[in-house]
Amino acid sequence: MAPRIRSNLRANAMATATCNFCLPEGYHLMTDEIIERGWIHDRNGNRREIVGSVTKEEAAILAGIIYKNGCRRSVETGVANGISTLAIAQAIAANGGRHYGIDPEQSSTHDYAAVSLLSEHCLNGCFSLMEGPAHIMMPQLIAPEELFDFAFIDGMHTFHYKLVDYFFADKLLRIGGWLIFHDLLLPSVKKLYRFIQTQGKYRTWNTPQLEPPMAYKLRHIAASLIKGKPLPTFWPNGFSNLLVLEKISDAERPWNHFNDF
Ligand SMILES: C[S@@+](CC[C@H](N)C(=O)[O-])C[C@H]1O[C@@H](n2cnc3c(N)ncnc32)[C@H](O)[C@@H]1O
Q: Which of 105, 152, 182, 252 has the smallest C-beta neighbourhood within 10 Å, fewest atoms?
């Protein structure tokens, strides 16, 4: 094997690890029954169907990372009905920490559904809602003496908003902190992941337990073809919809650095 290929393979092996973030036997994650029943209440007691939230398995990974690493300070973009928020807040509360949830539409579109859900589960005390878009709210959290242990990005899904969320999450996180993206199946998130790889600041953790069955993968690829989209060939993390990154460096690239991605 050519030395360059060998050294690339070695670098990739170092850059990727396989996750062991399972919650311990008997850990009761509150999101399990909420996701199973498929609805929550808003502030006025009206039922709202849960759509677009993390799955039970993804919620368990979020909580598992916080549990296993003793995270105490966390931030999330895209709160919506508060499913991911509930999983994160439960794990953060157990560590005696605080969770910040950013969403511009909690009082309008979502009619305080997430706030009601947290209050139903007695988790309001460790949660701060920041109502507004992430690009306005995240800079307000920057304080070098109070870095974050965990950031979950699930707000606006276009590439440029995701890039801005990444930029600020990176400023907020300590080395050893965790940066998680939902919707890794979206081209915008996959593109951003390619960019993040050019920066050398994050190690990728694979989550084999989230890998969907072959039939799902084939359906997904068929749907792309039917919609006339270019056939995607880049499926990081075994086609799962979550991207788990650990911050390993704060070093910035030189002022004129650019690697295509
Ligand atoms: C897919 S939902 C989040 C689902 C949630 N994380 C869960 O698992 O239950 C996306 C949310 O992003 C919010 N959003 C839209 N633009 C945003 C922005 N610029 N900053 C932060 N959140 C945004 C929307 O209001 C919506 O609630």
A: 252
Burial (Cβ within 10 Å: 0-12, 13-18, ≥19) of residue 97: buried
Separation CA 80–CA 115 (nearest Å): 10
In a domain, 100, yes or no: yes
Does the Cβ of 54 fall within 6 Å of ligand 1? yes
Give residue 119's domain range.
Answer: 26-247
Burial of 220 (0-12, 13-18, 19+ CB in 10 A): middle
Quick one: pLDDT band at residue 213, thresholds 50, 70, 90?
very high
CB 178 within 8 A of CB 246: yes
User: 89 alpha carbon to ligand 1 midpoint, in Å?
Assistant: 16
Q: Which two tokens stand for residue 203?
A: 């190690």
Average pLDDT over residues 232-236: 83
CA of 80 to the centre of ligand 1 (A): 5
Q: Confirm or reject: Cβ of 78 under 6 Å from ligand 1.
A: yes
If one counts the domains in the chain, the total is: 1
**pLDDT tens-digit series, residues 82-114:** 999 999 999 999 999 999 999 999 999 999 999
In short, whether 83's Cβ falls inside 6 Å of ligand 1 is yes
The pLDDT assigned to 15 comes to 61
For the entire predicted model, the pTM comes to 0.92
Q: Is 247 a residue whose pLDDT tops 60? A: yes
Separation of CA 72 and ligand 1 centre (Å): 22
Q: Ligand 1 pocket: which of 103, 116, 168, 242 to mutate (most atoms <8 Å of CB)? A: 103
CATH number of the domain where residue 103 is located: 3.40.50.150
